[in-house]
Structures are given as structure tokens and as C-alpha cells.
Amino acid sequence: MTITLQDVSTITALSIEGKPLCMNTDFEGWRQQMEALIGMSPLEPGVEDGGKKDRVPAGAPFTWIAANFAHCPQDANDEVIETYARVYMWYVISRTIFADGIGKNAP
């Protein structure tokens, strides 16, 4: 049995109409896509002593999500509230339905 979009909508009581939260994480441009969807992305990895960048999977660490989106500002406008809601849904869905292998990143 396969979970469908309708099933997720029924379980979460969320509408399946409107702007999607989706991006392709298979290529280098995932940070730009994330910035377009939520306004920011994790920093680029640093360069080690050997001159190579640390290997970081596409996606954001849950600690980064919590540090940047844990509390929506009290005086937030509708656009900011929508962004925080989008990030919260991404967080919940990636932690439960589509968790990664190590449980530390939101794909």
C-alpha cells in the first residue's frame, strides 16, 4: 500500500491546494531553491585544512531549522507567518514521513 497525497491531507487535516513546498535536492542549486522558498539557507560548509570542503548533504540540519524558526515573531505579517508555517510543515513531514537515514537533516 502506498501513501497518497490525499492520505496525507486526511491525516494532517491540511489542504492539498496552494503553493507547494518542494525542491530538487539532487543538484548544487538546492540552497538557492531553499532561499526562494523560506528566505534563507544553511551556511556553506567550511574548508578543512586539506583544502576540501566538509561534505554536507542537501537539506538543512534540524538544529538549524530550530535555531532559525522556533518562534514566529509576535508582530509578524502574513508573509512571515506563511513562511514559518511552511518551515513547520517541512519539519514535521521530514521528521515523520520522509525522515533521512541518520535523522539529523530535513531533505
From TrEMBL:
<dbReference type="GO" id="GO:0010073">
    <property type="term" value="P:meristem maintenance"/>
</dbReference>
<protein>
    <submittedName>
        <fullName>Uncharacterized protein</fullName>
    </submittedName>
</protein>
<dbReference type="InterPro" id="IPR044824">
    <property type="entry name" value="MAIN-like"/>
</dbReference>
